Amino acid sequence: MKRPPPPLIWGALIAAIGLLALVSLAAGKVWVPFSAWAAPGADPRWAIIFELRLPRTVLAVVVGGALGLCGAALQGYTRNPLADPSALGVSSMASLGAVLTLYFGLTASTPWLLPAGAMVGAAIGVAVLLALSNTASSIATFILAGMVLNTMAGAGVALALSLAPNPWAVNEIVNWLLGSLTDRSVEEVRLALPFVAVGCGVLLTLGRDLDALTLGETGARSVGVRMDRVRLLLGLGVGLAAGTCVAVTGVIGFVGLITPHLMRPLVGARPGALLIPSALAGAVVVLAGDVAVRLIPSAGEVKLSVAMAAIGGPFFLALLVSMRRRMA
After folding, report:
1. Which CATH number does the domain housing residue 75 bear?
2. DSSP per position, 261-326
């Protein structure tokens, strides 16, 4: 089957983002018709669009794009189709770093310490995974490494919850851990954009190196790829992008796992060619998920992390079964 040209794929994804963004601005418990958009100040629903839903929509695009790009970069580097910031514990380590700043009350006077803690945690998780990639490349090794990181981070978060000095700290940590875009403001957008932009920019420079890594590390070195530089840039990019996403929304899993697999049949398996389409598809997936959780009939809004887990869990299982059949 002939693949569509890249400009057509990019155009379709950008159009989908634009359409879903419009729906995201209008959809919710209170539907806002397009007639209200042109009446600033005259229609009270105008404030809902620009003060509540616009920051949420922008964050959905930013977070989805960053997580999709991180997943594609990690899968390209490790040559492992199961690599993903959440599945491999990077997001969990980022959440642990952020939770520690909440536990010690550091964010009250210095709010920037929350994303800083998340980025440090994500960088530690990436460093552990990249260190393992030097000694073993089996799928089982990376799954086990991700389980270890997730377990360690989960134990740290549980300890922080059990030792929290007051119920308000517990409530703040729990609400933040349940990844969601609800009630996000322009401040979160301003906080996320610079770090995510830098992290994604770093990852996008690795396309040629990731393509060379399809030959293996020895083959990549033979064509001039400096592996130490690639590891450093990958750790920096994923730490900044994924860590910042966790800092502003909590943990939203499986986006980085799903989107590269959705794009491979359309653009091929070359890692460098997957980076931008995966970022665009990640934005589409998160936007669609965020619109869906607002439309689910319930007393309260379903958390986006729950919806993504409901989709990503079966996808992950199906992927494992498919890989096992191919290896049998």
Report:
1. 1.10.3470.10
2. HHHHHHH-S-HHHHHHHHHHHHHHHHHHHHHHHHHS-SSSPPPHHHHHHHHHHHHHHHHHHHHHHH
Query: Using one digit for the tens of pLDDT, what is the confidence trace for 15-65?
Result: 999 999 999 988 877 777 777 776 666 667 777 787 888 999 999 999 999
Tell me if 62 sits within 8 A of 193, measured CB to CB.
yes
Task: Name the one residue in this structure whose structure tokens are 């994804």.
Answer: 13
Whether residue 212 contacts residue 219, with contact meaning beta carbons closer than 8 Å, is answered with: yes
How many C-beta atoms surround the C-beta of residue 152 within 10 A?
16
- Is-contact 290 304, C-beta < 8 A? yes
In single-letter form, the type of residue at position 233 comes to L
- For residue range 288-304, what is the model confidence (pLDDT) as tens digits? 999 988 888 777 778 88
| Start-to-end Cα distance in the chain | 26
- Domain hosting 204: range is 59-295+302-327
Query: How many domains does the chain divide into?
Result: 1
> Global pTM?
0.87
Residue partners of 72: CB distance under 8 A and separation at least 6? 256, 259, 260, 263, 271, 274, 275, 278, 279
* 16 located within any domain: no
Q: Is 257 a domain residue? A: yes
- Separation between Cα atoms, residue 199 and residue 226, nearest integer Å: 19
